Amino acid sequence: MHGVRIPAAGEAEDLVWVEMPDPAPGEGQIRVRIAAAGVNFIDVYQRSGVYPVTYPFTLGLEGAGVVDQVGPGVGRWKVGDRVAWFNAPASYAELVIVEADKAVLVPDGIDLDTAAAVMLQGVTAEYLVRDLFRLGPDHTCLIHAAAGGVGRLLVQLAVDAGAKVFATAGTTEKQEMARSLGAEGVAGYADFVEVIQEVAGPRPIDVVYDGVGRVTFPDDLRVMRRFGTIALFGQASGAVPPVDLQELNRNGSLFVTRPSIFHYAAARHDLERYSRELFEMIQAGRLNVLVGGRYGMDETGEAHRVLEARESVGKLILTPPEA
């Protein structure tokens, strides 16, 4: 088989599509022939060395495909099952080993590209809206990077929950997309405080969902309601510098959390709950998953470049060159 490797921490152009040994499933594992793999910022962080890994390294955590081998002790899956996942290392490849309890069944009527595109970002949006801060009709939220993979799903889930939604995006086109999904107030990263205050008055926000990080966090503090929550689930603009905790006091006894999907969906029943709701919403037409770019795995460097430059809308996926 072939896979996408990075010899050492480096740039997008350092990624290589190379021949590798076919993996074999062990106890409690399945082998999947990949139809599509999702491209995520965590892949960029691992490629560049922000998240240290052992190099050379095969990238990718998320994908969807068809089971072609079942390891010992696996009763849940059989050859031919269509499955998806967000936590299987080396998913930028033609074949991948997935822990059996980390895969979910892809229902009939959902194509594998969509399943690969929604797992990591969709489950992230689910835990943020359902569990970290359970949004409802009495809440007002702010969603940064609202035209990106997670942000676009977050806006839809927040609107579906009945919340009042403010959103940011980097271009006029992306701002219009957020507005079309139901965001009531939309702004750029430089003026979102003023836009929110003009529409809803001072400090109306119950929860900020912030995957941008360094650029947006200081102004997040300025829009928060007393006892509000800031959920920093990513750092597309860079890590937030150390914060004086008195700032949380001065701005209304705020809560700040740095959550991870790998904690919220660690239990099998939570993984199944999140994925089931996502797939049901897609099938019912309540959630639109946009595949904004489709690249061959031998073009992974370009996909990473587009993601890092924030040129993407929706989700980027990779497919084996012959797919």
The number of strands is 16
- The CATH architecture classification of the largest domain is Alpha-Beta Complex
Give a quick account of the main beta sheet: strands, pairing sense, barrel closure. Answer: 7 strands, mixed
CATH homology group of the largest domain: Medium-chain alcohol dehydrogenases, catalytic domain
What structural class should be given to the helix and strand makeup? alpha/beta
Helix content: 25-40%
CATH class of the largest domain: Alpha Beta
Rg, alpha carbons: 20 Å
Give the percentage of residues in beta strands: 25-35%
User: What overall geometry do the principal axes of the alpha carbons give?
Assistant: globular
* Total domains: 2
The sequence of SSEs as H and E is EEEHEEEEEHEHEHEHEHEHEHHEHE
CATH topology of the largest domain: Quinone Oxidoreductase, Chain A, domain 1
Alpha plus pi helix count? 10
Low-confidence stretches: none
Distance between the termini: 14 Å
**Overall pLDDT metric:** 96
Show the helix and strand layout.
Elements (H helix, E strand, L loop, with lengths): L1 E5 L9 E4 L9 E10 L2 H8 L8 E2 L4 E8 L11 E4 L9 E5 L4 E2 L6 H21 L7 E4 L5 H12 L3 E5 L3 H9 L4 E3 L4 H9 L4 E6 L6 H4 L3 E9 L13 H5 L4 E3 L3 H4 L3 H16 L7 E6 L3 H9 L6 E5 L4
Helix pairs in contact: 2-3, 2-9
